[in-house]
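Students often ask why we bother encoding 3D structure as a string. The short answer is that it lets us treat folding as translation between two languages. Here is a chain of 278 residues written in the first language.
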Amino acid sequence: MTGYVAKLGAAVARNSSLLCVGLDGEHSRLPDHLRDLPPAEALVAFNRALIDATFDVVAAYKPNLAFYEALGPAGMEAFRQTVAHVPAGIPVIADAKRGDIDHTTRAYATALFDVYGCDAVTASPYLGRDALAPFLDRADRGTYILCRTSNPGAADIAELDVAGEPLYVRVAERAPKWTTHGNIGLVVGATAPAQLARVRAVAPGVPILLPGVGAQGGDLEASLAAGLDQAGAGLLVVAARQVMYASSGRQFAEAARTAALELRERIESARATVVAAR
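And here it is in the second language, the structure alphabet:
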């Protein structure tokens, strides 16, 4: 294994963690003393403190580009500085949900991988393999393909019948075959553990990015039971707001560390239970 897959595996082992912390700060929700700064500057200060407090607890970070793009050019510079601040051994997943024709995706790949230095990206499967080839052909980087997401309306499209199976199952069956590099994962929400179990059944060895724990009300323990692979891994649990906003005071970073440690312990406990029951 090389590139993203190896980097993620090393971080999981080193930090005994399947936790991926989102870096999706909103200026209006930052601690009071940071809101006195310009929004982009405040976001960088907030992210740096969170990273410094949690880098030995997490397996990855996942900044969502929307929160940086909303701040204009200064926001994208904040994104660059945030990614650059992450220690070299911790992968960064750009939550960008990209998906376009191939020459456009080449530009996305150049921007996210080469300009900003991200290790992986989230992407939509709905334009097909050729549209994602510029991501997938980068053997040193990862691509998490949207499969069955965590939002309330996910079923509107993902559960449409396609020859007797819901669309998300067809995505889980087909998308991992789009590369021989082993660098494809799937995005499946913790708000749908039954659907997650179906995805794991048809894609037993494929890494899964699991949003929806915490503010969205996903069932962590049920999701781990449904989504862990046979080795008791293959799953990244995303937590954003419950870690980022653990405190609104000056000690926000310490509170974020405590929240991340508690969540890692909960994940590891549930993981051990699942493995022992197999």
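Translate back mentally: The longest helix spans residues 252-277. Keep this in mind for the problem set.
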